[in-house]
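Limitations
The structure tokens in this dataset are predictions for the assembled complex, not deposited experimental models. Users should treat interface geometry with appropriate caution, especially where small molecules or nucleic acid strands are included. An illustrative entry is reproduced here so readers can see what is and is not provided.
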Amino acid sequence: MMTTASISATEARSSRQGAGRGRFITLEGGEGAGKTTQLKRLVDWLQGQGIDPLVTREPGGTAAAERIRALLLDSANAELSADAELLLVFAARADHLTLCIEPALAAGRWVVCDRFTDATYAYQGGGRGLDRSRIEALERFVQRGLQPDLTLLFDLSVASGLARARQRSAPDRFEAEDLAFFERVRAAYQEIAERSSERVCLIHADQTEAAVAAAVKASVTQRLLGGA
Ligand code: Z5A
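Predicted assembly:
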């Protein structure tokens, strides 16, 4: 028989992770992997299924977090220390979660977010070489257990991704890094996919946009919509 204490613990857990709560999808990958392209296609498709998600991005998503994003991407801040970068990423995330993501999920709305904490493990952990335990500590502090329900990880060779990204715009502070940095980012993402295979779906991004979109739909259908 359930006690009052066990009932309230169950209710608290279900409001944060389960019944009535919206679904949280994140898109990840290295430079030019096609996240933003696929995010638009995914949102159109979800709307066609009768789901109208909140669409957001990191760093960013609130007025203050967008200002932090501008600071992080500005090549004029080339000397920003890796520790300061890590703290800024999590400061933006704290604001984004409190003001935007958590209220939407609690209201039963789906959230689709272009990058989230896996990017911190990949860029600040893999790319900058910061200690994993420091990222984990900030993740616990800021997220208090909240994790995406599904992460779509777009994997592409560094050379192809950079060629795509550089066709499109002038390099920002991250895009000015060398090839070895982006190889470490990619390796860190691949490690995340192996370690968290129940949450992360690795998608080969070196295919046509339509083929990648079909893989995205299959993953969302199977993992979140209970389809075959
Ligand atoms: N960052 C961090 O360090 N730590 C963190 O915790 C977080 C972020 C959250 C901003 O991210 C930066 O923040 C990011 C890491 C850091 N580093 N940088 N730079 P962002 O997501 O805003 O920026 P981005 O990674 O540079 O995204 P991107 O270059 O916009 O890439 P994308 O969204 O993956 O690609 P895309 O814009 O969809 O496509 C790029 C081009 O390829 C475009 O011309 C498309 O038309 C084309 N494309 C797309 N798909 C295909 C296919 N299938 N075939 C051929 N061409 C394609």
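Some entries come with short summary sentences. For this one: Residues 82-106 form the longest helix (25 residues).
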